[in-house]
């Protein structure tokens, strides 16, 4: 069949009429198939490059967003830890102030109790002196009463004797010398009686004075006993207050030890937070590197876009389909440019935020 259609010569192939158009049609069919295969491969390549660019940009954007979220969490946590540490320091200072105030009160109470004890000892000594004086005065009073009774009995006996003598003298009526002697004796006895009566009156005055002094000493004793009872009550109250204050001091000491332990734990936690700050610093540097990589990737994308534009300008004159596809590609490229510009803007904003974060970290470290 092929031989009937064509004839091969030495240098040429001779065909029948109409075979050339058929061969041209087959050639165009083969070329169109090849063009479709090339276009499909090119479209897959462009779509894959676009997908890879979008994926890389989305990954970089996700890393930036996650880094910002981690940074915000770290900032909030560091602010919380600073606030907690400042609150603990303020609580420690306030409790220390209250403990010092209670210690001052304890010292004042101890001084008051010491003064009360000294006053109690003085009053006890005064009471002992008053009791000893009262005993001596009672002894003197008893001795004076005994002496007074003896003197009165002696005077009564002397009076009786003198009366007996007078009676004997009057009865006997002896001589005048006896009368004179009796009168002289009577005068002497009367003088003695007057002297004794004067002494008795003086003793009565002394006794009245001693009684007044005894009543005064008794009143002083009663007042001193009342003061002693009051002082004993005050000392008991002061002892109870001292016990309570000692208990409070023990509680304050326990609170101080707990606060010291909490401060030690806070110091350790602060050291751990400093380590976390260093790790955050490293993470920020890694994010900066990723941002730089994203910038490099955006530059690669721009170069690929430029190459694609050149290839599209070369293939514009081929087919209408290619033009339509090139227009679609241009639209996608413009979208990619817009996304790249947005990414560049976001990276700039992120770099500014990172710079602020670094400044804040340096200030917090300083």
Automatic annotation (TrEMBL):
GO terms for biological process: actin filament organization. GO terms for cellular component: actin cytoskeleton; cytoplasm; membrane. SMART domains: IQ. The keyword Lyase does not apply. Residues 106-297 form a coiled coil. The keyword rRNA-binding does not apply. GO terms for molecular function: actin filament binding; microfilament motor activity. Keywords: Coiled coil. PANTHER family: DILUTE CLASS UNCONVENTIONAL MYOSIN, ISOFORM C, MYOSIN. This is Myosin motor domain-containing protein.
């Amino acid at each position: 069949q092929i031989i009937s259609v064509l004839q091969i010569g030495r240098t040429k192939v001779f065909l029948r009429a109409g075979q050339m158009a058929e061969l041209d049609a087959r050639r165009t069919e083969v070329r169109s198939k090849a063009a479709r295969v090339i276009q499909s491969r090119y479209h897959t390549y462009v779509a894959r490059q676009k997908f890879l660019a979008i994926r890389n940009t989305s990954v970089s954007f996700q890393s930036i967003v996650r880094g910002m979220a981690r940074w915000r969490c770290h900032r909030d946590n560091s602010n919380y830890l600073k606030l907690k540490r400042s609150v603990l320091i303020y609580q420690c200072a306030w409790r220390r102030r209250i403990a010092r105030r209670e210690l001052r009160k304890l010292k004042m109470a101890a001084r008051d109790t010491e003064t009360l004890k000294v006053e109690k000892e003085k009053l006890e000594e005064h009471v002992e002196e008053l009791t000893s004086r009262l005993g001596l005065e009672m002894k003197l009073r008893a001795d004076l009463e005994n002496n007074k009774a003896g003197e009165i009995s002696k005077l009564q006996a002397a009076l009786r004797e003198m009366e007996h003598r007078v009676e004997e003298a009057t009865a006997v009526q002896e001589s005048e010398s006896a009368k004179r002697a009796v009168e002289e004796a009577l005068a002497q006895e009367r003088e003695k009686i007057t002297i004794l009566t004067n002494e008795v009156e003086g003793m009565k005055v002394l006794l009245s004075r001693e009684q007044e002094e005894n009543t005064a000493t008794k009143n002083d004793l009663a007042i001193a006993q009342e003061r002693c009872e009051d002082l004993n009550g005050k000392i008991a109250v002061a002892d109870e207050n001292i016990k309570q204050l000692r208990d409070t001091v023990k509680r304050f000491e326990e609170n101080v030890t707990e606060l010291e332990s909490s401060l030690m734990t806070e110091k350790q936690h602060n050291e751990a937070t400093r380590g976390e700050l260093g790790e955050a610093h490293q993470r920020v540097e890694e994010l900066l590197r990723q941002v730089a990589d994203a910038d490099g990737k955006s530059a690669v994308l721009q170069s690929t876009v430029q190459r694609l534009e050149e290839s599209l300008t070369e293939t514009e004159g081929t087919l209408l389909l290619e033009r339509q596809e090139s227009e679609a590609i241009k639209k996608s490229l413009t979208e990619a440019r817009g996304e790249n510009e947005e990414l560049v803007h976001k990276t700039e904003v992120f770099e500014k935020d990172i710079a602020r974060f670094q400044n804040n970290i340096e200030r917090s470290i300083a």
